Amino acid sequence: MAHSATVDGGKVHPARTSGRKKEKGRKERWEWSGLAFSTPYVVVFLFGTILPLLYALYLGFFQTKMIGGTAFVGFSNYVQAFTDPTFWQGFRRVSIYAVIQVPIVVILALVAALILDSGRIKHVAVPRILVFLPYAVPSVVAALMWSYIYGQDYGLVGQFFQLFGGKSPDLLSSQLIMFAIMNIVVWGFMGYNMLIYYSSLRTIPDELYEAARLDGASEMRIAWSIKIPAIKGSIVMTVVFCLIGAFQLFNEPNLLQAIAPDAINSSYTPNMYTYTLAFKGQNVNYAAAVSLVAGLVTMIVIGIVKFIGDKWSEND
Question: Where are the beta strands (DSSP E) in the chain?
Fold first, then answer.
């Protein structure tokens, strides 16, 4: 035959050669198409994240004074940020906030997901949407709405206590303001975490549940021994996301500051402190240094939590 060739004669079969060329060409086209799909994200990530970080790093090496103008000061701003008591007070505050708020929102979301996945609720789409709905409310709107609810005189809480002739507690006092902020964030983000857990639970094969029930396992035992271990990865992911959000806390306290100025100052959180330095104190260089130090410390904390979480999720 015209297109046949023997391997023993040291010749390559034309059909095989053509197949390899087609496979190689297809692979190269796939590589180029993958690059084309990822280019928009790379461009946004470069100009929206990397370049601003580099510019902030650059600004931190300078100091601008009314007399003398801008001068290079090396690592002076960064050293000052690491030893700034105001910054560390704000970071200690958000750390306490994270230790309390993150477990609450994760546990509530997990319980809600387990209840929805139990199969004992009819028309599960309705409660699922209702739980998720607060996440669709912008954090600014949520903070304003809850600030009205917290009101002692005309707010919902105040009117409730007045209905029974009692005095409403000041939920925006310096002693309770942190819990008020936690309530707003938990209300807004519990549904988001619940949806992640619920989606993960739906991927577990039903055969595991049936085998456990045949062995006499209760629904609580199935949830504890099968469902939760199967979604450890999702739990770790949401814990990391919640921690990042906790250390970046800004919108809620910033809006409540106008209502409760005695309870929330301009350096209540690291992000508020950075905002105050940059836009109210006009100290952009030091604000850039503080923001990078805050980001570095947050990255270290998140890295430790992620390492511990990965070890936990790998254990069967």
Answer: 62-65, 69-72
According to DSSP, the β-strands at 69-72 and 62-65 are: antiparallel
Instruction: Please give the radius of gyration of the chain, using alpha carbons only, rounded to the nearest integer.
Output: 28
Check whether residue 179 and residue 305 sit in a common domain.
yes
- 218 vs 294: CA distance, rounded Å: 46
The reply to whether 102 and 233 lie within a common domain is yes
Smallest Cα–Cα separation from 134: which of 125, 123, 124, 146?
146
Say yes or no: 142 and 48 in one domain.
no
CB 250 within 8 A of CB 271: yes
What tens-digit pLDDT sequence spans the chain (316 residues)? 444 444 455 554 555 555 555 555 555 556 677 778 888 889 999 999 999 999 999 999 999 877 767 888 899 999 999 999 999 999 999 999 999 999 999 999 999 999 999 877 778 888 889 999 999 999 899 999 999 899 887 788 888 888 888 888 889 999 999 999 999 999 999 999 999 999 999 999 989 888 988 888 888 999 999 999 999 999 999 999 999 999 999 999 999 998 899 999 999 999 999 999 999 888 999 999 999 999 999 999 999 999 999 999 887 6
Amino acid occupying residue 171: L
Q: Are residues 192 and 242 in the same domain?
A: yes
Residue 273 counted as domain residue: yes
Residue among 97, 61, 54, 96 at smallest CA distance from 78: 61
Q: Say how far apart CA 76 and CA 59 lie, in whole Å.
A: 12
- 229, part of any domain: yes
Q: Which two tokens stand for residue 176?
A: 């309770």
Neighbour-count burial for 93-130, b at 16+ CB within 10 Å, e otherwise: bbbebbeebbeebbebbbebbbbbbeeeeeeeeeebee
Pairwise CA distance, residues 93 & 297, whole Å: 14
Residue 8: inside a domain, yes or no? no
Q: Which domain holds residue 23?
A: 14-59
